[in-house]
Amino acid sequence: MALPYMLKHKGFPGRLPGTDFQFVLRRAAKDGATPLKARERFADRRPADRRADQGFVKALWENFGDQPFERGNLDAGRLSWLFGREVVPAEDPFDPASYEAMLVLDIDRARAAFPDVDFDEEEGF
Question: pTM value?
Answer without folding.
Answer: 0.89
